[in-house]
């Protein structure tokens, strides 16, 4: 891996927002593509911080700093991705499910998906199953991404999947779910298509979804 | 078979009178393990595995963000309240927890135990200010709490409510000025905790309120789901969702 990419992933990991613009421009000047910077720099850094957060070695402020640092780089990369005329990867409707007001994780996933070239419709937090149904009908997305931080609210993920089935829309979208209490088994139980264990993992899954079309 | 309590320190004062009366030995674990669920499960498993004699282990925990998921009973029997977290235990029933939750999902709870260990927005803000400049501390705190709308102090008795009130009001004032939280007080119920300590070990099978994990068993997340509407529907989806 190039030194600049290593430096970018470390700057994300350490949340050094001020260094991001310089490092990103340096990487571009060295001939790296926005896609390479995203995949091997930014996402790498987010994977590192996510792992240490789960292990209790880093805390929420450090995760927020990393997200902010990634955002600073994406602000430069996004217009470039658009300029290259790269086709949008696909459309994603994302939201934190009903009864849940936590949106830090959802916002990180949205930011990373957008950076990876997806078109994002962010329904926000405390989103009722009916609102997801309505948005799917209106926006015709490829993917629906559901987030929950509480074991109390993750149950309404299943209700959202059920409502989409009842509305005859279930088979038109791929559904991925995530959030601290969510598990792969739970995704299976409620009939979702995938479980994302982290924000970078969510990007990986979404990419596989659209490539499998 | 000997009874052993393995519980979060946040529940210590609530469990203590019943525990002492019944003469049950107890190990109270540090606060806040739920923040790293995998480490919490490892810490609890370690404590369970150190019990040499086959015992009935009364867990003073809820699902706690999956912090009890994967716990192996080994040669013991585990009893765990069928609750999402300690708020259910403090309010006295799952129904009451759901009532409060439905009334205002954006509720931040204060309890005697959580006040004692300094787990609340005001003390977090003070800690952030020791580490970061004010703008950064403000940003971190706002990211975490701006979506909440209500602060609720739960106490197990009127006396406890009075004892905690001054500190809770200071936090309430801070949260109201910052995010417009409203402040409410609730007197919980000791019913669930009392039954957990004094009665649950007599159970022969799981009930609505308590899960019984027999020797050789393992705690699983879905054991905590209750009403049919809450249980995940049978899947018609793919069998391997983890791509």
Question: What's the quick description here?
Answer:
The complex is a heterodimer of chains A (213) and B (243). Chain A is an alpha/beta fold and 213 residues long.
Describe this structure in words.
The complex is a heterodimer of chains A (213) and B (243). With 213 residues, chain A is α/β, with parallel strands linked by helices. Helices cover 60% and strands 12% of the residues of chain A. Chain A folds into two domains: 3-83, Methionine synthase domain (Methyltransferase, Methionine Synthase (B12-binding Domains), Chain A, domain 1, Orthogonal Bundle); 90-211, Rossmann fold (3-Layer(aba) Sandwich). Chain A is globular and about 50 Å long. The two termini of chain A are 31 Å apart. With 243 residues, chain B is an alpha/beta fold. Chain B folds into two domains: 3-84 and 190-224; 94-187, no CATH class. Chain B has helices spanning 12-22, 37-49, 86-91, 94-103, 112-116, 121-131, 134-145, 158-179, 191-198; strands at 3-8, 25-29, 56-60, 77-81, 107-111, 150-155, 182-187, 210-213. In chain B, the strands form two sheets. In chain B, strands 2-1-3-4-8 form a five-stranded mixed beta sheet, with helices on both faces. Chain B has a three-stranded parallel beta sheet with strand order 5-6-7. In chain B, strand 6 (150-155), helix 8 (158-179) and strand 7 (182-187) form a beta-alpha-beta unit. In chain B, helix 1 (12-22) runs parallel beside helix 9 (191-198) and helix 6 runs antiparallel to helix 7 (134-145). The radius of gyration of chain B is 19 Å and the shape is globular. The chains are: A alpha/beta (213), B alpha/beta (243). Chain A binds chain B through residues 54-56, 60-61, 64, 99-104, 125-126, 150-153, 155, 158-159, 161-162, 180-181, 183-195, 204-205, 208, and chain B through 35-39, 63, 65-66, 69, 84-85, 101-102, 105-106, 128, 131-132, 139-140, 143-144, 147-148, 221-222, 224-225, 229-230, 232-233, 235-243.
